[in-house]
Amino acid sequence: MRRILIVNGPNLNLTGRREPEIYGTRTMDDIIADTRAAMDGSAEIDYFQSNSEGAIIDRLHAAGFGAVDGIVLNAGAYTHTSLAIADAIAAIATPVVEVHMSRVAAREPIRRQSLIGPVCRGTIAGFGPDVYRLACHAILALA
Ligand code: DQA
């Protein structure tokens, strides 16, 4: 059984209540449950969320050398600011897929820049909560 870790960064714990016109009304618990169900037994999904940059880096280190087959990362606003998270992704061996629920390419200029994009295996953005399921399938499709 393949194993995937989903890591969410700051403010994503408020999904469902936070700016619903951008991020929708489903809670992250609902979204993770839907994503697990969509795996249909083909992968086990671990879930981690933190509002702290260092905790996200520690979790990437812990998962990044064989503990899981792939990591789905929504780094939230750290996407646009954190060279430290980019370095952590570059440092680990496990492929990381960057996700964003909103279509960041169509938002404010700062959100169009991702410091983590260049070190991720790929990016999925703009499909709302479905980005988690799509990224898990992308990991399963990797050789
Ligand atoms: C986000 C987009 C980021 O710009 C923002 O800071 C978030 C959420 C998304 O999922 O669309 O917190 O990563």
Distance between the terminal alpha carbons, to the nearest Å? 15 Å
Shape: globular
Considering DSSP H and I runs of 4 or more, what fraction of the residues is helical? 25-40%
**How many structural domains in the coordinates?**
1
Named at the architecture level, the CATH assignment is 3-Layer(aba) Sandwich
Radius of gyration based on Cα positions: 14 Å
- How many beta strands in the DSSP annotation? 5
What profile does the largest beta sheet have? 5 strands, parallel
CATH fold type: Rossmann fold
Q: Would you identify the regions where 5 or more consecutive residues have pLDDT less than 50? A: none
What does this structure look like?
The protein is α/β, with parallel strands linked by helices and 143 residues long. The protein has one domain (2-142): Rossmann fold (3-Layer(aba) Sandwich). Helices cover 33% and strands 20% of the residues. A five-stranded parallel sheet has the order 2-1-3-4-5, with helices on both faces. Strand 3, helix 4 and strand 4 (96-100) form a beta-alpha-beta unit. Helix 2 (28-38) runs parallel beside helix 5 and helix 3 (53-63) packs parallel to helix 4 (83-91). The longest helix has 12 residues, at 130-141. 37% of the residues are buried. The model has no long low-confidence stretch (mean pLDDT 97). Bound molecules: 1,3,4-trihydroxy-5-OXO-cyclohexanecarboxylic acid (DQA).
